[in-house]
């Protein structure tokens, strides 16, 4: 395949989660016990835990499965110390790399790409930092070339996973021989706060831990079940800088998510989507980052989407929670499995994710059951 007709695509996807499973109903009950002396906060927490669309998620921290009085991340009267930011970062350093390796190896296997063919490594995370970083660890443990181009994307929030995909598309567009390995790892539950404040309890209700990875490169005839990558669009929404805030505190990172976020998305995103689509056929598949149930509901209503079109996003939120930057590849993997099972394709679509700023990242995608000629593709779908 020459440069003129190259097909840039996500060639393989891998995911991984920690072994500790948080059941939403059980976690809600234990948190309610910890808040028993604060009835207003207890009632609010129970309601938001029930309504946020999550049933299970995963955590790297086994202490989060302990009883209310023994959990150091819940409000309590015992002598247990609250984990400091330094302690949480030690846990992040210990637990993040094995998850990253698992997801990366799965992506390499799924994409039929040899580790020696990886030219670029993009590592993504906003829930922890250490130096030398995860990129250096992955080079050594995966056996990547020591000359691999390493690009860490740190502290960019939920939209960073899709930002990495868009950046990878640009890299391969400039160099068709490039193969970009993206690895996203987020240990969100490390930042659960022992608090009665609604903002902290809201964040505790639906964030989970996980890692995802993918390979972006030029598709070959051996590649099947891939997402071709099309036009990209990035926008910083006006007057919304204070709506999503993520700051380093003494006891982990402090998160604030405004209840106005779905409304702001409803106000500004239709124009941005239309700018990207530019009069082309309406996307059939929608890979939406499930930043929260309200975001999915807003986009579903705004664009007249069916339950089938939002099912992959809701399924990931239900089974894993919001894993920040790692989540969008879980959604694409869920979508791919469903399309393969139904024998559907080629089919065009859109992937979008939101992050602090407020930032919106978008990219046009096309699911292909197998690699076909560019000419036939252009006859069937718009990319």
UniProtKB/TrEMBL annotation:
Keywords: Transferase. This is Type III polyketide synthase. It comes from Paenibacillus alginolyticus. SUPFAM superfamilies: Thiolase-like. InterPro entries: Chalcone/stilbene_synt_C, Chalcone/stilbene_synt_N, Polyketide_synthase_type-III, Thiolase-like. Residues 7-218 form the Chalcone/stilbene synthase N-terminal domain. The keyword Transferase applies. Residues 235-366 form the Chalcone/stilbene synthase C-terminal domain. Belongs to the thiolase-like superfamily. Chalcone/stilbene synthases family. Gene3D superfamilies: 3.40.47.10. The keyword ATP-binding does not apply.
